[in-house]
Amino acid sequence: MATSSGKSKSPAVELEIDDKVVRISNPDRIYFPETGATKLDLVEYYLSVGDGIVNSLYERPCMLHRFPTGLSGEKVHQKRVPNGAPPWMNTVRVHFPRYNRNADELCVTELAHVIWAVQMSTVEFHPWNTRSTGVEFPDEWRIDLDPMPDCGFDRVRRVAHVAHEVLDDLGATGWPKTSGGKGLHIYVRIAPDYGFKDVRRAALAFAREVERRAPSEVTTTWWRKDRDPAALFVDYNQNARDHTIASAYSVRGNPRGTVSTPITWDEIDDADPQDFTMRTVPARFAELGDLHAGMDDAVFDISRLLEWAERDETEGVTDPGGDD
């Protein structure tokens, strides 16, 4: 990675990415004060995992988490592609019924799109679980293992294995990754045959089955104030419309510059999420490639989960957040 000169202003750098040229202004601006990593370091990180980040974001509406002056400054959650985008930038229009508004969100189809977003101070990429060809029909079911404040990572590991067991029983292939924080995510490719409400219902039915198998460790309680602070929440609501989580290979906006990193099931017992950073992941990616590359070849039909959901609803198990 490039080294920082400590200056706030530095000569711009022009990068040729395939057939596009992206101009990086202020490349030596420090974005991560704890490590000294600069804007250009962030660019070089995303270049090093290019195939992985493009695969994770490909044709998905994407919210940008921007830090215009680095992590020490303001964080901006941006749905719309920033002004000044070159004509070759790709977007997809999404509608927000609550506000009756539209937004033209970033829709990555090549690496230059990612690097231009980084030039515009994007650190984190948060894609939808749908594609531009069917914005209302998810093709990605997301299992978010979200530890409460007093829940240690050992519990996260144990629950991940329970989730893996349930997925195996369903005949579904799960693709785990670190969150870049204290939890784990598991993605499952699904056929885009159902809307957000049904995918969320399926996700809740799965979460309840995990809770049944590990009742002392897992909660699906909707209200945060009512959850055991030592429990792990299986956050099924990440499958609701316009809810997003950091993509695979996305850097997180924290002092260490941790990365939401694909891992294998065999790595879960030994993996420490804090070890996966923008400094360490490039070498791992060069050695292992994109561990999520085969996801599109393992499509799961959620109809059985919807049967579980119907069973739960018939038994009077309600979802207090169902209208979210």
TrEMBL record:
GO molecular function, one term: DNA ligase (ATP) activity
Residue ranges annotated for the DNA ligase D polymerase domain, each copy included: 38-292
Annotated keywords: Ligase
Taxonomic placement: Bacteria, Bacillati, Actinomycetota, Actinomycetes, Mycobacteriales
Pfam family name, one: LigD_Prim-Pol
EC top class, as a word: ligase
Protein name per UniProt: Non-homologous end-joining DNA ligase
Origin: domain of life: Bacteria
PANTHER family the record matches: ATP-DEPENDENT DNA LIGASE, BIFUNCTIONAL NON-HOMOLOGOUS END JOINING PROTEIN LIGD
InterPro entries: LigD_pol_dom (IPR014145), NHEJ_LigD (IPR052171)
Protein EC: 6.5.1.1
